[in-house]
Amino acid sequence: MNDSVLNVEGLSVSFGDTVAVRDVSLSLGGGELLALVGESGSGKSVLCRTLMGLAGRDATVSYRRLDAPGRRGMSLVLQDPMSSLDPTMKVGKQIEEAVPGRVPAKEKRERALELLRRAGIDDPELRARQYPLFLSGGMRQRAAIAIALAMRPRIIFADEPTTALDAPLRLKIMELMDEARRAADVSVLFVTHDLNLVRDHADRVLIMKEGRIVESGTPAELFAAPKESYTKDLIRYANYGERSDHHHGRIHYHQGRAHSHEGADGHSHAGGPPPATPGVDAVFPVNVLRVGTQRDGSFVSSESEAARNPSPPLVDVRGLGKYYDTGRRRVRRVFDGLSFKIYEGETLGVCGPSGVGKSTLARCLAGIEKASGGVIEVADSFRLPQAVQFIFQDSAGAFDPRVRIGDSIAEPVTLAEGRRPERERVYELMRRAELGPELYDRYPSEISGGQRQRAGIARAISTNPRFLIADEPVSSLDVTTCVRILHLLKSIQEERGLTLLIISHDLRLLMHISDRILHMQP
To answer: Which of 39, 163, 177, 464 has minimal CB crowding within 10 Å?
Structure first.
């Protein structure tokens, strides 16, 4: 590790009466990856923005010492990729624009394509010609990382850069950053809630709580002997979902096998574990739509699904397909021949690698996008506009930045009932989503990503829907907040009789909370 490229002493940041960062001191060595870990709202993103000079006009910043490169020597990868990508400019052009110096146009284009390729983007030539709207959340995040690397910075502030990615792509992005650190002596301040990445890639770790650094050390030191109870909780939740004796859905593990019990009420383990259903492997439980088997490129459902669920489905999808016209007489197939059913009161998990079409499927089910082929039949009770609600993956893009949080939560009620709800009703929705009433008058940019996601949940349940679609509802959250949000969704489901469809690239998490899983493969 080389000499320090960043030195901070006594940094504090406040917004009016709210103190976001309190007397923080840190240093970052050349080529070092320094991980910053903490709960949502602990001040991690504010710290990164402040170090880059982007705290905002309303911020009051004070420090005893701040030695940092100029702005051209620093780049920022934001937690919400749509916040850093220009929706009116093609992805390739945005990367080319970030290449420093007087470089020929051809060389810029080649570098943009190479960065997209190294970031794990499929068909980089096509993606470079597309606008951010046509990329999945995971692809947009990788494009944002490619832009950051194109600048050849001395420091990369990576604010949750891997949250929207599946496990193989997370590793690929970390390898990309490790390569940049070795080849160009780039330093990384890595904000994350993925403690497994911290353990494998970080040189040092800072634990942040309520704006303060409460503990620091190497990954080996912190994982072996954490001192603070807060750090112990973070580590304890790091492997959430791996315990076979703690579950929230009908998928369970017995004798190393995964299976799913029939019946909406699950089962009791008193008297010993029931035998696993024959023919079930360790990855997919029996009551699961087996999409892993492909026939002529189409997805095929389980023969026994209808027999195991004699009640009529609330949603019946048959032969669903979605295609996009990408120009020049080219059509991109997202998925084709997809067939499955959703039953009342169940939690259906949807998993698969980034870019496979999970979010596109969800938007088709919600009526936000029109399918290119196939049939989606819904029960009469689902035909009311307020019966189906959506929790979006991009919490920043899901809110109008000009509208206060409380007004955004109240808006669906106003549209459904024709009159604005009382403040107390909105406060109750916020309380149900674990948000304090003081956030009512805040704008989306003034709260953390985790708080925005919980506001999205409050807004989604405001009209008492019957079917709730949650697109990566916890991918941007720290491990403790993730657990609280999952428990919140499940408790709301039990309280209101909701049917849930939860999308995640984390199969372990879905196995923990789902009744069945739809596994989409490219």
So the answer is: 464
What kind of architecture, by CATH, is found in domain 4-237? 3-Layer(aba) Sandwich (3.40)
Closest CA to 386 of 422, 417, 358, 351: 417
Collapsing DSSP to helix, strand or coil, 301 comes out as coil
Statement: residue 293 has pLDDT above 60: no
Q: Any residues with CB less than 8 A from the CB of 154 and at least 6 apart, and which? A: 5, 30, 69, 73, 74, 185, 186, 187
> What is the C-alpha to C-alpha distance for residues 290 and 255, in angstroms, rounded to an integer?
22
Q: Please check whether residue 374 is in contact with residue 338, taking contact to mean a CB–CB distance below 8 angstroms.
A: yes
Residue 479 zone, left/alpha/beta (φ > 0; ψ -120 to 50; rest): alpha
* Residues 434-454 pLDDT 10s: 889 999 999 998 887 778 888
Confidence bin at 254 (pLDDT 50/70/90): low
pTM of the complete model beyond 0.90: no
- In 3D space, the residue among 79, 54, 51 whose CA is nearest the CA of residue 65 turns out to be 51
Type of residue numbered 426 = V
DSSP helix/strand/coil, 223? helix
Residues 6+ positions from 502 with CB-CB distance below 8 Å: 347, 348, 349, 350, 470, 473, 489, 510, 513, 514
- Determine the longest span between alpha carbons in the chain, in angstroms: 74
347/350 Cα distance (integer angstroms)? 10
SS3 content of the chain, % helix, strand, coil (to 5): 35, 25, 40
Domain(s) labelled CATH 3.40.50.300 in the chain stretch across: 4-237, 251-266+275-289+347-369+381-519
d(CA 483, CA 512): 11
The pLDDT of residue 288: 28
CB atoms within 10 A of CB 442: 18
DSSP characters over 204-217? EEEEEETTEEEEEE
CA dist., res. 327 & res. 333, Å (int)? 13
- 373, β-bridge pairs: 321
Q: Which secondary structure element, helix H or strand E, spans residue 35, and what is its range?
A: strand 33-38
Class of domain 251-266+275-289+347-369+381-519: alpha beta
